[in-house]
Amino acid sequence: MPKNPEIKKVLMIGSGPIVIGQAAEFDYAGTQACRSLKEEGVEVVLLNSNPATIMTDKDIADKVYIEPLTVEVVEQLILKEKPDSVLPTLGGQAGLNLAMELEERGFLKEHNVRLIGTTSQTIKKAEDRQEFKDTMEKIGEPVAASLVVTTVEDGIAFTNTIGYPVVLRPAYTLGGSGGGIAHNEAELIEILENGLRLSRVGEVLVERCIAGWKEIEYEVMRDSAGNCITVCNMENLDPVGVHTGDSIVVAPSQTLGDKEYQMLRTSALNIITELGITGGCNVQYALNPDSFEYCVIEVNPRVSRSSALASKATGYPIAKVAAKIALGYTLDEIPNAITGKTYASFEPMLDYCVVKIPRLPFDKFISAKRTLTTQMKATGEVMSICNNFEGALMKAIRSLEQHVDSLMSYDFSNLSREEMLEALHIVDDMRIWRIAQAIRIGISQEEIHEITKIDLWFIDKIAILTEMEYALKTRELDEDLLREAKRMEFPDYVIAKLNGKTEETVKEMRKTYGITAAYKMVDTCAAEFAATTPYYYSVYGGENEAERTSDKKKVLVLGSGPIRIGQGIEFDFCSVHCTWAFAKEGYETIIINNNPETVSTDFDIADKLYFEPLTPEDVENIVNIEKPDGAVVQFGGQTAIKLTEALMKMGVPILGTSAENVDAAEDRELFDEILEQCQIPRPKGQTVFTAEEAKKAANELGYPVLVRPSYVLGGQGMQIAINDEDVEQYIGIINRIAQEHPILVDKYLVGKEIEVDAVCDGEDIVIPGIMEHIERAGIHSGDSISVYPAQTISKTAKATIEEYTKRLAKALHVIGMINIQFIVCGEEVYVIEVNPRSSRTVPYISKVTGIPIVPLAAKAIMGYKLKDMGYTPGLQPEAKYFAIKMPVFSFEKIRGADISLGPEMKSTGECLGIAESFNEALYKAFLGAGINLPKHKNMIMTVRDEDKEEAVEIGKRFEALGYRIYATRNTAKTLQEAGVKAIRTNKLEQPSPNLMDLILGHKIDLVIDTPSQGVEHAKDGFLIRRNAIETGVNVLTAMDTAKALVTSLENTDLNRLTLIDIAQI
Amino acid sequence: MMKAFLILEDGHVFTGTSIGAKKEVISEIVFNTSMTGYLEVLTDPSYAGQAVCMTYPLIGNYGICYEDTESLRPWPDGYIVRELSRTPSNFRCEDTIQNFLKRFDIPGIAGIDTRALTRILREKGTMNGMITTDENYDLDAIIPRLKAYTTGKVVEKVTCSEKTVLKGSGKKVALLDLGAKNNIAKSLNQRGCEVTIYPASTTAEEILAANPDGIMLSNGPGDPKECTEVIKEIRKLYESDTPIFAICLGHQLMALATGADTHKMKYGHRGGNHPVKDLETGRVYISSQNHGYVVDTDNLDPKVAVPAFINVNDGTNEGLKYTGKNIFTVQFHPEACPGPQDSGYLFDRFIKMMGGEE
After folding, report:
1. Global pTM?
2. Chain A positions in Cβ-Cβ contact with residue B57 (cut-off 8 Å)
3. Which of A484, A683, B226, B357 has a Cα-to-Cα distance from A943 of 20 to 30 A?
């Protein structure tokens, strides 16, 4: 029962598609909050457009709506479901903004719905730049000199009074979108113009630059009685100037004395009290490193990415407690679920050190600027825990899965002292590696500090690690040295490499000396009280607290690591459901993962949680203690699959599809054999190792060809090549990333791309449905609009797909999940890819078909038969709904990234459009993705020659909708000849007015720009696309997407959407 | 690096490296969970007669800032940490812990599994131990010595030797120094009070003769029941009708002086995160704590005193309000240092009680 008995039915608003700045952490917070509300008997109605989330499961909420997050939809939903309350503070900025709009429109009041958690006045006071500043001034909390401006002129005038540099922060945007630091008037104008446009209310804060100060954060909780506590404080290794989401963050703060710590803590409590927040809140400070002077940078009156990190760093479930507070409970009434002995009013004490490192997407966006600014760019993060900073840093580095394992992983040895002094000014994701090299070549810590402003304490820790590298390189490896290296978490193979030994020798030595990992508990209280929740991290040197606990069968579930493009939240969804399915069948479950944003690393998902890197050595240490009966690798994406071989060597049985069969799907030759046996055609292809071989293969197959490395996910390094030059360039790029596996060269087929997920029990298969991609083959499946059920392929083709799926599942002896991608050309069906594991589409297809695929697969793995579980084998009957999965991109966040779609995946998230008609589903999908047309009814078209014919059709249809079409010479000519009134516009290099003027003039709704196939020769297209994205214009780079969009626009008479409760499917 | 050993009376031995003085010491081993404020802990006189283990593993990160000391010297008999920072970093840093310990001849041990030690103390209760650098220690000989150790009368070791005055224009407060942390006097002085600090042996008559507006009884070390003389004087102060505010040991002594009892806790409260509830308002504050003894409230005579604060976690007494008197006492530390400043308002309450402006 809620403490406040008037709360019976609560609407929770989620955060929508995953974008940079708003990621998995809100699924974690939202899921925890829903469970917390349901625990109290409250009926939960959930709205979130993101189908990949756990919170949109029918087990989590009572009513689930995967609908676009717009005011109209929420209003309609409130009328339909009649909740008495809305909880807006757990769905990130998106949820908060929506709730605010509803409140401002008076809708909530009119329908007697209250906002619980935090009032709208509070949200306004914290979010509105001017009100926030006034509030801070009222209670004497310092903020940097600043002014909210609505015009560029005002911005210039104000900056002239406070001096450059200034920081620009647009109001109501995510992850600092459109913000930045301006050092001169030109930069000021550029950033300000952009920021004013991106801000929901057209306001930008111009602020004195405090770059170089220490950046400190406090996570604070307050209840309705006014009790408040701090959950955790955190210190950024990167001083002010880098967005906290892109900073290396350590918890608790390391370089603050008690006076500084308490000064800021008291300030944070004063702020949360004055704002009247009930729930969780995050306060960010800049602290002058040479005095007690500080400034409040920002307050988030809601749970945030930082609160997810703080929850995992301390064990304190912030979202759960915030939900209870929203129901009227006070902190001293809410038990601490970790200890069972203390209450939520107890401040966590850490007896370890936590390091978070952001996962940046520069491996996907090779052309992007790596510079880190106040605009967040990270797609995800990793966290590690150790009892010393060096060890925590080393563990976090190897958790990144970016081919880094130590501070030696990026090579800067080519830089001279002078060049290095210059390079130290660069603020990017490789900065700590550069600092390590600077130390190695004798640049003093003080000099490094002078340039980077990074605190000497951190620089010295990096120095300690380089000293250890040196010792390992130059000294005999004795017991003491090995013990010390392991204390700092040097992996065995790194020690071996440095010391000229084999990894096996090092491992043997460790065995001889008894140097083994011990596991300590995260217990919120520094061991002051006995804790009951087994949440562990490893250290070397110390007592092991992890014990084998029960006689139950034990299963190890490997998580999917940091969220990155190509491996997102979907895999956490799968890992969590797998864990639950095994628990339900009486297994003891153990999760290993290192991502603080996820549900899988919540303290009560598995029986035991190990917060550790997912490398063979780290996993083996856990295996040695837990001795699991088996491991499941199917659900944790490529991260888990990659551990298959290592697990087998450790003697851990792989549950489900065997390792050999996993290999058979990935190994080209073995796979070809299987296809041949099954009589399934595939595009012809060859396996090569060098550029020469690749060119030879390509010419034999005939261009265009698809080149890609094997063993990748998300099409990393995959490209279409149309000539020898392309091939050479691609091989060059691929080889930049360490490549142990061969390169595949395939004939590129133009056809319909089809995707299928299936469950196999070893005998029978269940195919929940066939999905069809709107974009033709050549665009990564993760970036394509996916339609269920498939619309344009014949019955015969569907039957062939079913048959091939069956044959392949059998031939590969799949037990559990299989994902297959096909190309359909007419009635011909080709297989292009088989993944003997769970895929990105599993959560989506589970939800729209109502078939719980992951639990089914998990039960198949446990030995149950599909028939016995009530399923008729084969392709399941089509649902009565159309469900369209729409990719969502974060291009505006990554300066310099090429946004054109191709075989390499670029989207960060997805949303769903579900409806009883195709058109409505499509309309909802575009709406959910934020493509909100029309505004000005002006568009630009510039297409490559191959697309000219289709451009005519599309042009005609847009024209019929009243669009004015601007086009470059050739496109314009084609359109005009076909009778479309296109306006010819100058290309970029031609004199003004040209395309760029149009884009920057803010009058364009849409750009359709299809880049020429192959390598981007023309810089023009790139510039157009970048500028359009950065000025908030929608850009489409595939004709198929454009066609779908115009179809959706032609059907906007759908002014009333039908909302569908997914829980009823 | 010289080896050092921490030997517990239950026979556990931890091997680490020696820090500070090399001498051998026997003391009562306690743990503190504060993540910052190691210097305030080291210089808190309430740790006299104890060796303190910091549960936070990285100690000394910001070095020694002398203005943060809570008394003129460190008081623990020994210092136990996981890791001492080799390069402290802070704009106020003047020295390292290593030097500070050496200068005051305090031995310590680093590099041990402080969490394992904490778990032992939590499970078995506070116990005695020895820090030694003697590799040839003889457990059979040492353990009886450890068992025989008692903290004894430590207040007299830590109190000031003569009275001093902190000038102020507001209320006159007499502070009985039982091992007071500097910030108690400072907190009053900052609020305008003139604070006269008296040695623990001062008689009630002498204090009352100065006609103070209020009396402050400070924190201090050891078993309150050892302070038999002081208790007698406090009884007289109680009867004087002068407003009294007491912290920690002062709180326990007032309870003993008015007929209540105290007992030793299993492992005490030492840290900066304990929630205490003000029973009058229902509000919860996070407090700084350092105590191994607690007042029994089972047999508390409501005609004398009633509980004013309780610990939210374990329900133990955290403060008393004396019936019919202008007296209130707390077990926790409103003067903070180290720890949260949330209960600093109690000094204002005291000033109001003395007839001043809050």
Report:
1. 0.94
2. 351-353, 387-388
3. A683
